[in-house]
Amino acid sequence: MPFILFFLAVFSFALAGPLAPLPDIVPAVPGEAQPTAPGTRPAPPLPQLELTPPIPEVQKVEYASNGFIEVAHALVLVSDLQPPLMLRKAQQVVAQVFLTRPSLSEVDISVYRREEYAGFGGPLPRLTASVPRTRLEAFQRLTPANLKSYDRLWLNPRDQIYGPFRTPTDELETNLQFQGSPVQLKAQRLEQAAAALQGGVVGSRFYHGDPAVPLAALTFDDAPHPLYAPLLLDTLRRAGVKATFFCIGRNALAYPYFVRDMVRDGHEIGNHTFHHVRLNNLDKSTVLMEIQSANQVLERITGRPVRYFRPPGGRFSPTVLEVVRELNMTIVFWTDDPGDFQNLPDTTLENRLERKLRRGGIVLLHDNVLSTIEVLPDFLRLAERRGIRLGTVDELARSHLSKTSAESLTTRK
Q: What domain of life does the native source organism fall in (predicted)?
């Protein structure tokens, strides 16, 4: 079947013009240790606010801008976890941050138990909140009795178990890495080549959209992040562009209001596992748990089924493919990964995005990289000049189905 698809697609491929090479599918190494992303440069330090008088529980308050709005995120570590005390502390911190920097449009806060804090990828915070300046008064009026009246606060219930804590994967998705036999690997490469030419979903895999359609998918991995999510959403809103956010379940659980913002703005929500771990060397029950747990969180927040899945690190295996197929989902890869997570200079990131932009392409970016937010407006304008509309994964998949249906109708006539 892949051979038939390959040759049938040649004519439409010729019409669409040359394509840049897709990321190669290389064998994965079973049991390989979780590495630091190769070549990753440390991100430039963000500016921080000094509160006066200082609040001992506040570890840092960082802020950033997308050129239109400024957002701050406060990290707070406490020992007393009684909800009334955590809420009062959060209200005190948010109010003082706004007073310290009046130009802020929003203050977000994450309150952790001091003894268990291990960074953003560690155990979840105990309380989070997002406070736009226009909602500050409503936030300050909150009491433990009326918490549900404010839809931008999350209190950790501590009764939701999603399997043992797993160390997140911290590596770039530079290549699709498949763990299987040589025969299975060869079949995957052949399928990828055929899918790139014909476009559309093949089986439960989506490598490339239709190269004859002037549309590409814009995707962001690792969402949501409490500092960058509002900046990125504001940037996309101003441009009138919709995207697909592949959310990490644990992040969505702790910051559900940002996922709701994505849906409200017309964006699509995809699955990026619960803990952001590599799946290629895990057994079926663990793979199933990682994907299903994230689905449960996302569906509870959005009220919608999750159709698309992207494996962290681009790592997959026959087991991953089997689970995705059984869940009636589609695994989504990419054609364009500029490596924004390496904290590249803006010009390098822009050049890589420009070089690989194509019809039917799938652009992979991350929602937690400031340079991505900074270059995004120029990239969106570049796509417009080239006559390529950027949209969601589902739009790209459906564009091929619509074209195929139209061609079938014409043939029957």
A: Bacteria
Give me the CATH number covering residue 216: 3.20.20.370
Residues 102 and 91: their CA atoms lie apart, in Å, by 16
Q: How confident is the model at residue 411 (pLDDT cuts 50, 70, 90)?
A: very low
284 and 198, same structural domain? yes
Cα dihedral 118, 123, 124, 125 sign:
negative
Q: Which residues are catalytic?
A: 221, 366
For residue 150, what are its two tokens? 């404010």
Dihedral sign for Cα atoms in the order 282, 283, 285, 288: positive
pLDDT at 4: 43
Position 348 in a domain: yes
Q: Do 49 and 100 meet the contact criterion of CB atoms below 8 Å apart?
A: yes
Domain, as residue range, for 136: 58-155
| 197 & 263 share domain | yes
Burial of 408 (0-12, 13-18, 19+ CB in 10 A): exposed
Tens digits of per-residue pLDDT, 26-46? 444 333 333 334 456 777 899
Q: Please, is 322 exposed, middle or buried when counting C-beta atoms within 10 Å of its C-beta (0-12, 13-18, 19+)?
A: middle
268 in the same domain as 312 = yes
At 96, is the pLDDT very low, low, confident or very high (cuts 50, 70, 90)?
A: very high
Question: Could you give the CA distance from residue 68 to residue 53 in angstroms, rounded to a whole number?
Answer: 29
Residue for token digits 């049938």? 8
Q: What are the phi and psi torsion angles at 73 (to 5°)?
A: -130, 125
Q: Which of 155, 189, 213 is the last residue of a domain?
A: 155
Closest CA to 101 of 75, 56, 70: 70
Nearest to 208 by CA among 6, 358, 403, 12: 358
DSSP 24: P
Whole-prediction pTM value?
0.86
Three-state DSSP class for 307?
coil
